[in-house]
Amino acid sequence: MLVGREGRVVSFEPQEQIAGWTVKNLQRFPQARVIKAAAGQSKAKAAFSEYEIARSAFSGQGTNLNERVGRQYEIEVTTIGEALLKDERPVDFIKCDAEGTEMAVLRGAVDILSKDKPFLVLEAEMPNDSELRPRVREFAELLGPMGYQGLSFDYDGKLKLAPVSSFVEGHANVAFIHSSKAHRLTSIVHE
Q1: Furthest-apart CA pair in the chain: how many Å?
Q2: CA-to-CA distance for 153 and 169, rounded, in angstroms?
Q3: Are 55 and 49 in contact (CB under 8 A)?
Q4: Which residues contact 25 (CB under 8 A, 6 or more apart)?
Q5: Rounded Cα–Cα distance for residues 172 and 191 (Å)
Q6: Contacts (Cβ under 8 Å, ≥6 apart) of 85
Q7: How far apart are CA 4 and CA 72, in angstroms?
Q8: Integer angstrom CA distances of residue 66 from 17, 44, 56, 69, 143
Q9: Cβ proximity of 171 and 153 under 8 Å
Q10: CB-based burial of residue 160 (10 Å sphere; 0-12 exposed, 13-18 middle, 19+ buried)?
Q11: Tens place of pLDDT per residue across the chain (191 aa)
Q12: Strand 173-178 and strand 148-155: pairing?
């Protein structure tokens, strides 16, 4: 609804059951499309461990033989760029929660990051008071040389936005914005 009829939303979902529900839930939105695959660094196949529905947020690539999961199967992996159609570019926004494989998704999207310079919201570890989170550090090392700056954000009735690690967020997400688009934050913060 936020992108209107002219915008596009592309979702990647490797988990069979959730992909099916997503397709069904998005039927009334012709501008939304589901890719039944994981986004990653390159086209491939990968092992996938699917937990029962109550713990499905922990499902992900790889196998864990030490823990009981609902089932394991093979999934398709593609890059964001390989999966997008011509009318789905340029990319303005990427939200990535890939259960620990966010760096692979970013590495597979370097062309999009360099050309389109989308705003990014990436899942990392839950924050703590003491130091920069390891995955946030990895994101910054990859994205910084491309012109991106990290941002901590939270919302408590008002948007709180500051350089990464300026405060402890109540969630595991971190944002990155390209320096050429940083001026857009002024209107977001004041709305």
Answers
A1: 50
A2: 7
A3: no
A4: none
A5: 24
A6: 33
A7: 37
A8: 23, 25, 17, 9, 35
A9: no
A10: middle
A11: 788 888 999 999 998 888 999 999 999 999 999 999 999 999 999 988 887 766 666 677 766 655 666 788 899 999 999 999 999 999 999 999 988 899 999 999 999 999 999 999 999 988 877 677 899 999 999 999 999 999 999 988 888 888 888 888 888 899 999 999 988 876 565 44
A12: antiparallel
Domain regions of the chain by residue span = 1-86, 117-191
The answer, yes or no, to whether the previous bond of 90 is cis (omega within 30 of 0) is yes
The span from the first CA to the last CA of the chain, in angstroms, equals 19
Q: How far apart are CA 115 and CA 46, in angstroms?
A: 28
Q: Which two tokens stand for residue 103?
A: 């760096």
Beta strands in the chain (DSSP E): 9-12, 32-35, 38-39, 44-50, 60-61, 71-78, 93-96, 119-123, 148-155, 159-163, 173-178
The strand pairing partners of 159, in sequence order, are 155
Closest to 35 measured CA to CA, from 77, 1, 6, 74:
77
Given a contact cutoff of 8 angstroms between Cβ atoms, the answer to whether 2 and 71 are in contact is: no
